[in-house]
Structure to design on (227 residues):
């Protein structure tokens, strides 16, 4: 039997797939072959643009997870956080594509990048704010319990413990992205390594050590015994 593929949805595009996914608009967001100064601009834009999309999803999951924490639905929050964490793993993996961008080719693209920097990424800005909000919602739940948190050992039957462990993993994945990004920046941007005065690498290396939830990392450690 032949399927009818004629479009029924409103919107632009020759098919319902194109209309729903808005592929006409999406695929026009990269500089065309006659606009580019280097053919690797496509590689560069695809990695950045798809990163922004995954970060948009990660932020939405974090925002909903935060609402669920406030509503004391900790298992739901944990499941949503796992989705955000997977989005981070995917954007870490796709940094691999930048290994095909050589420093000399990247340098030839510089004039069309203006003063742009990944540090201006709206996706990263939103993810960071959403992470801080999640931390605040968690702290309120913890305060309501009235006992200090010890994750040593973690109790998998306690939803608060499970959420705390998921938050530690989120923190770790952010850091893993930063470590990989730092290495990509070094190999592509030709920056002097961390330690050289005024190097951007100093800042990137320092950021790799940043934690949103340092107290949760602390709570996983065995208590120190004073002897
Ligand atoms: C050729 C690849 C890349 C190079 C050479 C590079 C280089 C750099 C450098 C030198 C910095 C330090 C700040 C500055 O100089 O403006 C930076 C920061 C940053 N870049 Fe990249 N980057 C690359 C790819 C990416 C990608 C794919 C993303 C994804 C959106 C990204 C996101 C960021 C973010 C969020 C920061 C702020 C630092 C942080 O929060 O860890 N960069 N990048």
């Amino acid at each position: 039997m032949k399927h009818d593929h004629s479009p029924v949805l409103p919107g632009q595009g020759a098919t319902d797939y194109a209309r729903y996914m808005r592929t006409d608009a999406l695929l026009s967001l990269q500089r065309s072959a006659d606009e580019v100064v280097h053919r690797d601009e496509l590689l560069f834009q695809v990695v950045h643009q798809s990163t922004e999309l995954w970060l948009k999803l990660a932020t939405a999951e974090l925002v909903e997870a935060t609402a669920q924490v406030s509503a004391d639905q900790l298992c739901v929050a944990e499941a949503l956080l796992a989705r955000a964490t997977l989005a981070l793993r995917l954007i870490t993996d796709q940094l691999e594509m930048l290994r095909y961008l050589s420093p000399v080719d990247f340098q030839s693209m510089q004039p069309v990048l203006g003063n742009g920097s990944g540090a201006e990424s709206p996706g990263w800005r939103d993810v960071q704010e959403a992470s801080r909000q999640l931390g605040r919602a968690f702290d309120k739940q913890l305060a309501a319990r009235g006992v200090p948190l010890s994750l040593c050992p973690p109790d998998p039957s306690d939803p608060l413990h499970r959420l705390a462990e998921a938050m530690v993993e989120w923190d770790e994945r952010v850091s893993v992205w930063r470590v990989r990004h730092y290495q990509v920046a070094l190999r592509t941007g030709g920056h002097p390594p961390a330690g050289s005065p005024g190097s951007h690498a100093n800042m990137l290396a320092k950021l790799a050590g940043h934690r949103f939830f340092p107290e949760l990392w602390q709570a996983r450690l065995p208590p120190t015994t004073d002897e």
Remarks:
- The pocket of protoporphyrin IX containing FE is lined by residues 47-48, 51, 98, 101, 106, 117-119, 121, 124, 178, 181, 184-185, 188-189, 191, 200, 203-204, 207 (CB under 6 Å).
